[in-house]
Each structure stands twice: as C-alpha cells, then as structure tokens.
Amino acid sequence: MDNKKHTLKSRFKQAPFGVGHFRRRLAHNDALLQNSLLGLITGIAAALVIIAFRSLFEIPLMHWLPGGTAESFESLNPIWYFLLPVIGGGLIGLWLMFFTPENQKAGVTHVMDRMAYHQGKMPFKNAFAQFIGGALGILTGQSGGTEGPAVHLGAGAGSQIGRIFHLPNNSLRLMVGCGTAGAIAASFNTPMAGVIFAMEVVMLEYSIIGFTPVIIASVTATLLHNTLYGAQMAFMTPEISMVSTHEMPLILVYGVILGAMAALFTKTLTSMQSFSAQPVLIRMLMAGTFTGALAYFVPQVMGMGSDSILMAIEGQYALGLLIALALAKLFATAISVGLGMPIGVIGPTLLMGACAGAALGHISSYVIDGPTSSAGFYAMLGMGAMMSAVLQAPLAALIALMELTHNPNIILPGMATIVIANISCSYVFKQDSVFVELLRKQGLNYRANPISQALNHQGVTSLMHDDISHHNDNDITGYQSAIKQGCNWLLISSQNHDKVDYVLHMRQVLVDKALTTSLIESAGYPTKTFGFCSSKSTLKEAWDLCKECSYTQLLITDIDGSIMGVLLEEEILQYAQKD
Q1: Which residue in 344, 342, 335 sits closest to 271, CA to CA?
Q2: 3-class state of residue 11 by DSSP
C-alpha cells in the first residue's frame, strides 16, 4: 500500500467549466465536444511543427541544388552523388551520439511503440533528435521520405500538449492519433489519407469518437499548411485510364509481383536489426555509404523522389532505368531505415511502386496483343499497391492514391491491385506491416485486443465514486454526518491523516452502532486490498494495476496528490464485459 501523503478532494469544489471539470469530462468515451477541441488544437500544433521542419531543409536545398528545387539532386556534380550521403551519414551519427539509444528511436515505429506500451507519452528528446536528424537526412540526399519524421513530430506535438495540461491518458492517445493525421495531411496535402493512416496504422481502430477529432485535426493542419504553401497537388498527373478490361488478369498478376517486392523490402529492412548493437555512428556511416554507392550509378535514388515519380508516370524513363531505380530505391531505403536512419519509408514506397508499375506497363505492351494502357497508368497502380503491401494498410493506400493523383479512373483497378498485393505480401510471403515487423524484432507485440482498446478509451475518473469522506480514528463517529451529506465511501486513517488504512462502503457499516477502529478490526475488514492510481490513467492501466497487485479497490489521486474517489475492480470488469 502506498504511504505517500494524500488529502481528500471534495467533489463539490470543482467549477463546472474549470480545467478540473474539463479533465474529468475527457475521461468519458463520449466527450465528443471536448475531444473535438483537442483535435483542433493538435491539428494547429502539427501543422506548425511540420512547417518548421519543412522549412529547415527545403529553404537550404532550393538555394544549394542547381535545379532550384528540393528534389534535384541529380543535377549535382556526380562526385557528390557518393560524397553527400556519406557525409550526411557521418553528421547524423554524430548528432545521435548526443542521445541515449532509447532517445535515438524515431519515426512511425516509435509512435506505435509509445501508443502500445506507454499510453501515447512521447519523450521530447526523441522528437528533438528526430527533428534535426530527419532534416540532416533529407538535406544530404538520404534515400527516405519526410513523412516518417513528420508523423513522429506531429504525434509528439499532440502528446506534449496533453502532458503539459495533465490530460488523461485516453485523451493523450487520441491526440497522438490527431497529430499523426495532421502530419500526413500537411506533408502530402492528403487530409483523407491522413485520417485513414492514423486510424488504420497507428491507432488500429475505427470509432466515431476517434474519427471526429482526427478529421478535425487533419482538416485544420491541411488548411494551415496550405495557407503558407498553397493547395498544390503533389503530382500533376495526366488524365489516363485503363484501355481495356482484358488487362485485368495481367494487373492481378502484377499485384502479386508488387506484393513480392514489398515483402523483399520489409524482409531486408528488418534483417538490418541484427546490426542494432553497433555504435550509431558506424551504422549511419554504413547507411550513407551504401546509399552513396547506389546513387553514383542511379542518382535518382537520392531524396524522396517525388520528381522521379512524376517522370515515371509521364513515361519519361526507359525500361532499364525504371527497373534499376525501383531496386536501388528498395535496397537503399530498406538498409538505411533498418540501420536506424531517422527518415521515412512511405514516400520511397510510392517511388518504388511507380517505377515497378511503369516497368510492368512497358512489359504489358509486349505481352498483350492489342492496345494497352500507358506506362503511367501502371505506375499509379504500382504506387498504391506498394504502399498498401508495405504498410498493410489497403484503405489508406487507396485514399492516398486518389488524393495524390486526382484521377477517379484509377479506383477500380487500383482496388484490385492493392488487395492482391496486400494478400500476396502477408499470406504468401508471410510479411506483416513493416512497422509491426520492426516492433516484433524488438520483442514487442502491437496487436491490441478489443477489450484492451475499450478500456483504453475511457479514463478512471469516468467510473470512480467521488462520494467519499475521510476520517481519522479520533473522529470516526463523524461518519453519520457523512451519510447525511450523501457520502457512500469512508476512508479511515487509524494512526495519522496522511495514510489511509481502511476503505469502507457504507453498507459495510452497522448504522445503529458507533463505528470505531476496534469494530472495524473485529469485523475483519481487509486493510491491504486497495492501492493508489493516478486520475490520468485509463481503465486499462487501472485493470493491470489491480491484477498485478491483487487490489480490489483503487483510490484515484489528482495531479496534486489529493484523493478524488474510489474505483472498484469489479466495475472495471463489468464495463469491459458490457463493451
């Protein structure tokens, strides 16, 4: 039993519109208005941090690179194809040496880890390491995207706001989801894909109470980001469509091929975890050297490759270059991210898929006797299929494909390719989401069961009894006046007022007798069946505490240490069974 000092907090002292009342309301899973406000705040915070992050690398790149854009690494002198990633790897390694191995963790996998095992509490040091490390990676042409750092930073912004205001952990988890959606939406100008990615990949659930604030965050972040950068499309793709339904069988075969590529990518990336014990500087130099070696022969592998995606869609790359770029991007990104480089994988999967799809489109003209769709059409199919299979997120990939291309003709064949690629990667080649596979390599299991999810949606104060009265052994007879005041629970201290020894419900007390400490002891009331639990905890955390310590009751404490109420183990179980 905890011997820390605790005082009683009266249930009648909270103002109906005060911060304390706001926190109490957030503990309920139907606090839609309050959660919507949090979604708005988190969306603004995510957009601001993404704007700051984007400015950190885009402004220098647009001045340094000869092409005048942040993606024109190919216009550099060829010697820099090799030197720039190697120098970047060294700089990133030196930067990460200032952080402990635990604080070096970054990206989407880190966000999922904090959601599954830490109730969405994301350390500031990890976000700071990601902010600078991710910018260095993009500045030096590493083979990665911006969305991994963006998700980490957006989710971290939501988490930090929640922790500053001592919000309950169920709201903290939601704010991480809101930050994730806002970050994806602002990075790609894809508000719908941001929502689906947050729900399908990070939160692993679909619920009304979750959807609404996440949508608000995504829309807010997109509007704020577009106010500064403009509502520009990621790819100005031509209006192309499938020429003939006779291509469908071949498209399904291509889905299997893309699923195999996705499995190879995931397997390569996770196999790099065998080097995780090596010093971070060595790992970053290895990643930079490998990327530089590939870039010397295929310079388009540098950066995220949004310009190369458009070139593949427009049919400006020959078959040989498409195959070389798809494979070079696959291995460069997988090895770099697997070694711990703080860069993203979603953007590179789009480039891999676009190049592989365009290559297959060229092959189709030789396989099919008759008119076939353009290579650009197959490139778009490849983008969705590769993203879906790598992330195991078919709906997020389909929505992203629609928002990135603004081409409604892609929906039907895109759905077919995405589904086949997903099934091939997961069932034929036995590879789950790249993020889930990474967590498994670290000994973590990310599959949450429905009961745990239900308990994580609600805070402890939503079920607690706040009709409590605290007495010491010198004033125990005052329990009768407590009954008249509507109190049903007695907290009794037998020695001093700072330590609770008995938690009794009024029905346990014989009201026709004077209650005394000796009467309590003679009745055999247990003294060690309760513990203390923070008011910020979820019902899942409270349930785990009860199971771990064999508690039947928990005293809920506010952020100042005062006792707010009593929570019963049996009522947590009843809630879980009802839900």
Answers
A1: 335
A2: coil
